[in-house]
Amino acid sequence: MSILTLAGSPSQRSRSSALLRHAAQLLRTRGLAISELGLRDLPAEDLVEGHYAGPAAHALRARVAAADAVLISTPVYKASFSGGLKAVLDLLDEKALAGKVVLPIATGGSPAHLLALEYGLKPVLSALGARHILAGVYATDKQVRIDDDGASVIDDEVRTRLEDSVERLAEQVRPRGVVVNEAFDLGRLALAGGFSV
């Protein structure tokens, strides 16, 4: 099973990207393959001018097509998801998310912006064919902090909600009857340098 993460913030120190990276790491520990993509991976000119026929847009569509699930993160600006993310989504085919499990993740300045997921992002995802959109994870700026060294500090309540959503996503994409051997996965992570044993 292949999972694509799509970061809708241009900033490397983005809170929404920090949540997305945490979700990706949780999925890796479950033995799922993760591919990462962000705004910085696409030429700005292609995004601004909507170069649908360009090589970057073609590669984007291929990566989305190959994924069984897509995690999409965005900061909320002016009560809506990021314009950069919208530019990326505009380069996808009309039914690019059909048959895929989608988990939206967002951060914003206050709890009031939670509705940006429901009334802003989810309708766009539906227009792209997504029918299995998991309950989104939203956090305020106070709930996700980035330290001076770039490490993220995630509020316990947000961490729990994110872990629950990731578990639901993993259950949806894991083939029936497949049992993940946690000892094998932990050993593989240790060999890959993910942590020390």
Automatic annotation (TrEMBL):
What's an example Gene Ontology biological process for this entry? alkanesulfonate catabolic process
Q: Which UniProt keywords apply?
A: Flavoprotein, FMN, Oxidoreductase
Family annotation (SUPFAM superfamilies): Flavoproteins
Pfam families, alphabetized: FMN_red
List its EC numbers: 1.5.1.38
Report the family membership.
Belongs to the SsuE family.
User: Per the database record, which ranges form the NADPH-dependent FMN reductase-like domain?
Assistant: 1-143
Q: What is this protein called?
A: FMN reductase (NADPH)
Any single GO molecular-function term of the entry would be: FMN reductase (NADPH) activity
Top EC group: oxidoreductase
Keyword Lipid metabolism attached: no
